[in-house]
Each structure stands twice: as C-alpha cells, then as structure tokens.
Amino acid sequence: MKITFYGHASVGIEVGGKHILVDPFISANPLAENIDTTTLKADYILLTHAHGDHILDVEAIAKRTNAVIVSNAEIAGYYAAKGFQAHPMNHGGSWSFDFGKVKYVNAIHSSSFPDGNNGGNPGGFVIEGEHKNIYIAGDTALTMDMKLIPMRTKLDLAILPIGDNFTMDIEDAILASDFVQCDKVLGYHYDTFGYIEIDHKQAIEKFSDKGKDLMLLKIGESIEL
C-alpha cells in the first residue's frame, strides 16, 4: 500500500492495483502548486465531508477518470444527480470494493456544500487492503468513538488532522492515536491557512515524547506500508 500526501487533507492511496484519492483540494492550494491534478489517477474518490477545502477538485477529476465517488448518502446522491458514478455509505456501514474493505466511521465536524446543499454528516474511513489497515479520520474533534475502531481492526497507520482551530490539535491527536491504538501517525490538515499553521519540530517532538511516530510529509511525498 502506497500513500501520497497532496497537501491539506488530500491523500492518494495505491492499493490492490487501484488508485484512490481522498478529499482532493489541490488546484487552489498554493502549497500544492507542484501537483498537476490533470495527471492524477483515480479509480475511486473518497470524501469525508462536503466542505470546499475537501471537494474542490472532485468533479474535474471524476469527469476525466470516471472515478466512483464514495461518501455518505447525501454527498453521493449530490454527485449522482450530476451524472457521476457514486457509492453511498453511512456511519457504521462497510463495503468490500475491488481494492479492499471500507468502513465509514464517525467524525465530529460539520458538512455542507459551498452552494448550500446538505452534505450530510461528516465521517472518516477505515480501509483494509493488502493486509494493511489505515484510518483516515477526516476533519474531526477527538471523540470516544475512536475507541471502537481497534475493537474490529488493528491499524498500521492513522491519518489524523493536527492543525487545531477547525479540528483536533497536536495534544488531542496524540490522545486519538491512543484511542485507535496506533502509534504510527500521518499528520494532515495543517499549514494550508493561517488558522492551522503548526510548529513542525514541536509537533514531532510531542509525539516522540509519548513513544509515537508523527510523519509530516512534503507535498507529493509518499510512504509505503
């Protein structure tokens, strides 16, 4: 399983011979100017919620690649009504795709489209594929619901928001890693805007002090699990 960071809360996942994009907000992110969205591969696009900084490039990429959009029922229905392929899910539900199993799990945030349409309730994803399991938290506060995840799935990586203000901060993300029982963390949702700028060195040290590994990838950089 290969995971690539595209800035903000956008990640790419290569698993089972398929390409997955999560929350593609790339073309308007000045920090991601080196990423060409017209060349990104996508068989699936997973969306945690409907905010503009998570869905900006969905339609352009889905139109070019014919990707299946996977999200909650309201978001999937929104795109299906526009003629895109979509797979609706809801909290606690899972589905076995051709790349692995996906479960839609709780997140505490808000969710509405920039045009005012209902974006349903926000969520995160647990993905099991190629004998590797990852948790993509989406935009969320720390929540006790995270403790449910390791009751069903042993994680190899947790992808957690760490920028504060709109989501968890560093300290809460450390607690979240305790809750999901995963000490290997990829941080995201930081630095894009003034509200969520972080001190990288301090963040890594705080995780390290708790015996945990926080990875802050450069935009376009990848890791393999």
What is this entry, summarized?
20% of the residues lie in helices and 29% in strands.
Structural summary, described in words:
The chain is α/β, with parallel strands linked by helices and 225 residues long. It is 20% helix and 29% strand. The protein contains 6 helices and 14 strands. The protein has helices at 52-55, 58-65, 73-80, 149-152, 170-179, 200-209, and strands spanning 2-5, 11-15, 18-22, 44-46, 68-72, 86-89, 94-97, 100-106, 123-129, 132-136, 157-161, 184-188, 213-215, 222-224. The strands form 2 sheets. Strands 6-5-4-3-2-1-14 form a 7-stranded mixed sheet, covered by helices on one side. The longest helix is centred in the C-terminal third of the chain and has 10 residues, at 170-179. The protein is globular and about 50 Å long. The chain starts with a strand and ends with a strand. The model has no long low-confidence stretch (mean pLDDT 98).
